[in-house]
From TrEMBL:
KW Coiled coil (keyword) present: no
Subunit structure and binding partners: Homohexamer.
Amino acids binding UMP: 55, 75, 136-143
Compartments in which it is found: Cytoplasm
Protein name per Swiss-Prot or TrEMBL: Uridylate kinase
SUPFAM superfamilies per record: Carbamate kinase-like
Principal location class: cytoplasm
Function summary: Catalyzes the reversible phosphorylation of UMP to UDP.
Amino acid sequence: SFSTPRFRRVLLKVSGEALMGNRQYGLDVDMVERVAGEIRGVQAMGVQVCLVIGGGNIFRGISGAATGMERATADYMGMLATVMNALAMQSALERIGVATRVQSAIPMSSICEPYIRRRAVRHMEKGRVVIFAAGTGNPFFTTDTAAALRAVEMGCDALLKGTQVDGVYTADPKKDPRAERYDSLGYLEVLSRDLKVMDASAITLARDNNIPIVVFNLHHAGGFAEVIHGRGPFTIIA
Ligand code: UDP
């Protein structure tokens, strides 16, 4: 009953927290499997999919720095955390028959491929899901920025951010019952109102390269496929 997909190639940003499910730390296997199922559904529609996986469920550079560790070192630990999540996602996808490749921004040749832009594009053309690990490979960045960067490099039609809520709200909907969801926003509105969507460098990169950002609920079953068909609820930033 679905219409033709609205996007040909997309990048899905999955935060580490999303993979935590209801736990306080680490990976929730059910959640990883659910997200893998969502990805398979979209890929089966003929849409090319790549992923950027966060690491906040395991380690964040900021927290490490707060304990006295050098920030850059702590950030490298955070990037390593994203590699662990990427491998977990790869495993879950392959178990349900989706061909994948993990590419790390920090070369780790015995575990996965190094990031090679043209090769990543080729993988997607062949129907493989490419999972980008280790963020941008640089400390002082986030996986949000990595997601915007890879979406631009891959020539994606959209950057989809799967979150715990179904879009961007005027206030935190979990705390304020009057909070309302925006259907659409401009990049500059997000920046000037300091709305917590993605960090400013990610928004700027998307804006400079005209890539729409779609924020939707990754916990809502079938949500990813619906967004691909332009069905809500979601917030589109363009
Ligand atoms: N990180 C980094 N450079 C990058 C991407 C990530 O240094 O390009 C580090 C940073 O310390 C960050 C951690 O990796 O805290 C985990 O990534 P992030 O916090 O973006 O994960 P998410 O919030 O999406 O789970």
